[in-house]
Amino acid sequence: MGRYARLGDTVTASVKEAAPDSTVKKGQVVKAVIVRTRKEQRRKDGSYIRFDRNAAVLVNDEGEPIGTRVFGPVARELRVRKFMKIISLAPEVI
Questions:
Q1: 50 in helix, strand or coil?
Q2: Cα Rg for the chain, rounded, in angstroms?
Q3: Burial degree of 50 (CB within 10 A; 0-12, 13-18, 19+)
Q4: 3-state helix, strand, coil in the chain (%, to 5)
Q5: CB distance 74 to 36 below 8 Å
Q6: Cα–Cα distance between 73 and 71 in angstroms, integer?
Q7: pTM of the model
Q8: Is the distance from CB of 24 to CB of 44 less than 8 angstroms?
Q9: CA–CA separation, 77 vs 6, rounded Å?
Q10: Residues 19-59: pLDDT tens digits?
């Protein structure tokens, strides 16, 4: 495994801030799927995809999102990695 995460990778993260009524609490260790990255990624057709900030979606052990909403666009590469639930929740797939 490489040092850096790319689109669609599952990573282990620590919650830095959380809403008081949320199911995840501050300091909790969770799994997350990378949905946007600042670093460009090359696609098979030769084009590059790059977002203006990094973003991840918290997931459970089965890879299903913990939350009920996904804000902002997500990358098409998630479809190849079988994260269909995240794609269906996202407002736009780029």
A1: coil
A2: 13
A3: exposed
A4: 10, 25, 65
A5: yes
A6: 7
A7: 0.92
A8: no
A9: 10
A10: 999 999 999 999 999 999 999 999 999 999 999 999 999 99
